[in-house]
Amino acid sequence: MSGLAAVVDSDLSEFRGLQSQISNLRQTQQKLMQQQNENDMVKAELGRLQAGKVYKMVGPVLVEQDLEEAKTTVEKRLEFITNDLGKVEADCMQKEEKAREVADKIRKAQTEMQRQAKEEVDKIQAQAQEGQI
Fold first, then answer.
1. Average confidence (pLDDT) over 28-55
2. Using CA atoms, how far apart are residues 79 and 68, in angstroms rounded to an integer?
3. Count of CB atoms within 10 A of residue 42's CB?
4. How many CA atoms lie within 13 A of 17 on its CB side?
5. Model's pTM, two decimal places?
6. Fewer CB within 10 Å, N- or C-terminus of the chain?
7. For residue 58, what is the DSSP state?
């Protein structure tokens, strides 16, 4: 039975690690979604401009930027963010599936440990009834 307990301990450790990784991925996903929303707002604002000056912050300085260049930059940034979101979501789904598999493995091992413990108790009770103990 101690062999099963070691397996369960190992699996629990793996499960906790997966849960931690999933949590980190979800935080990354939230940050990317926030960046996506901010860039969508910038894109909408740039879309309203017919002409005019657009400024870009470079360090502590505002630098004038061409409107079309600004729109292109925001579009590319949105593409990168969307791609990153897809990667994070796929990775998260993979980790969640692995966590489900490990949780099932833990449940089965715990059920087996309970079955073995019950068999041991039944043996002891049978021996006690026969007067062997």
1. 92
2. 17
3. 16
4. 8
5. 0.77
6. C
7. E
